[in-house]
Amino acid sequence: MNVNIAKTLAQCGRDLGDEPGLVEAATGKTLSFAELNARADSFAHILSSKGVTAGMRVMLMVRPSADFICITFALFKIGAPVILIDPGMGYKNLLRCIEGVQPRVFIGIPQAHLFRMIFRRPFRTVEKHFCCGSSFGLFGTDICKEAKHTFGEFSVYEAAADELAAIIFTTGSTGPPKGVRYEHGTFYAQLSLIRDYYGIGPGQTDQPAFPLFALFSTALGATAVIPDMDPTRPAKVDPAKFVDSLGKYRVTYSFGSPAIWNVIAGYCETHPAEQKKLQTLKKVLMAGAPVSGKLIARMQAVLEDDAEIHTPYGATESLPIVSIEGREITEKTWPLTQTGNGTCVGRALPGIRIAILPVSDAVVETFDSSSCLPVNSIGEIIVQGGVVTRAYENNAEENRLAKIEDGSTFWHRMGDCGYLDTENRLWFCGRRAHRVVMQDKTSFTIPCEAIFNVHPSIFRSALVGIHGQENKHAIPVIILEKEKASTISAAQLLLEAKTLGAASDLTNDIVHYLIHPDFPVDIRHNAKIFREKLSVWAASELKGEL
């Protein structure tokens, strides 16, 4: 069976023809499914004629656009694995990641080629390079201009399920970004799950804030609208532009991080007339960080009554694995979250198995079902299923830490802590690396932070652990970020936060509280808190007191 998702685009090109396949909101450029597939075929012919063959690793550094989608599908058609790295991760991380994956082909905009020329060492494995855009001949001919010519149908590569399709990097929220090996079978499993569970297909229109998700939309026969925004800074999205394209193109579903929907909800609350542009929006997907019931309620208030909000949970290594609808959160689980029970992320999706192991930083060689924890016991979340990737690229140590053998299959360690309740719902309690291990107990970030997040003047909080000169165990510290519009004094906020902390068994032993002006967050979702950076900052602030 050919599991290459490029074949589904070819089928959409034949079946849906002149129906709109992809729209660039910034330019208004629209490609039908037939044009989208034909352009992908043109790129495939151009690259193939110039020596790009199946198995050659291709680094792609092109802005979110129709050409980004078409080139990616072209590489799938050829069978050449595509390497995707968030440029916002910082140039040092970027260079380290490039060097680690050893690309043989480079495709990029002129600015990316200039970056390649300045930092030559990580690109030393590159044998062929192609430019997207005019560089006045400096970096070769513009293949985007060449692709305006049609070259006929390109035969889709017959991919086996275990063949490498892409390498996609993690956000690096708990360490250096890691390259995740995406096999064709993984993409196909994701495509099937998204189609069947969320009902995505022809007649639907998607506006994904994460560009890669446009691949799934178009492959499923849904129109994809690439929003006019910088995907590396979702919290800085222009809400007027985002909302306008939702209405203009009659978008029916949209995926984005909580940071985006927080901005959109705030905009619609202060611009009631703009809510009319959300009338076609029937499904909102929020993911990338824990989603508050407060945010869900705000979005429910600006959507139509029949709209649904879903909060799928997963990771770059395995997505999606569970999901829950917003009404169950606001009506049933959110009150429990606010009292420190963690964030309910939902029930396992079809074909997904979830188990909870005792928390450990050590390697777990083989799976033993007798070691799994009972319901309502916090431990480490592990997962098994078709959407779970098999390995990291050139990272044997991380593979040993993240994968658990189970006969002919394996489990993936999510790196997260949580528990299953009596209704088979998974509750997220924070990253394993962020837990604070003290002498007599272990505290988890999400339950503890919920105690303070109920305060109207607190935008978010972070539990971190630091070590004093004489302390072998961690000392817990609560760090607060004020709501931007709040006028409460720092002294009063600290006093009220300490009162909240003292009233909960989860936090009544915490002595140290700090206020930080602006939490550092990840570049992909602008929502995951970099607690490691806050821990270093807190240690500096409390130096001499410990």
Approximate helicity band: 25-40%
How many structurally independent domains? 3
Low-confidence parts: none
- Could you say what the CATH architecture of the largest domain is? 3-Layer(aba) Sandwich
Strand content: 15-25%
Radius of gyration equals 24 Å
Q: Mind telling me the CATH superfamily name of the largest domain?
A: ANL, N-terminal domain
CATH topology of the largest domain: Rossmann fold
| CATH class descriptor of the largest domain | Alpha Beta
**How far is the N terminus from the C terminus?**
62 Å
What layout of secondary structure does this protein have?
Blueprint (H helix, E strand, L loop, with lengths): L5 H11 L3 E5 L5 E3 H17 L8 E4 L4 H13 L3 E3 L6 H11 L3 E4 L1 H9 L9 E4 L11 H4 L17 E6 L9 E5 H15 L6 E2 L6 H7 L3 E4 L12 H10 L4 E4 L1 H13 L12 E4 L6 H10 L5 E3 L2 E3 L2 E6 L2 H13 L4 E6 L4 E5 L21 E6 L11 H7 E4 L2 E12 L4 E7 L4 E2 L4 E2 L1 H9 L4 E9 L8 E8 L7 H13 L9 E4 L15 H11 L5
Parallel strand pairs: 1-10, 3-4, 3-5, 4-7, 5-6, 9-10, 11-12, 12-13, 25-26
Antiparallel strand pairs: 1-2, 7-8, 14-15, 15-16, 16-21, 17-18, 18-20, 19-20, 20-21, 22-23, 24-25
Helix pairs in contact: 1-2, 2-3, 9-10, 10-11, 11-12
Q: What tags apply to this protein structure?
A:
16 helices; 6-stranded mixed beta sheet; 8-stranded antiparallel beta sheet; Rossmann fold; GMP Synthetase, Chain A, domain 3; globular; Luciferase, domain 3; alpha/beta; 546 residues
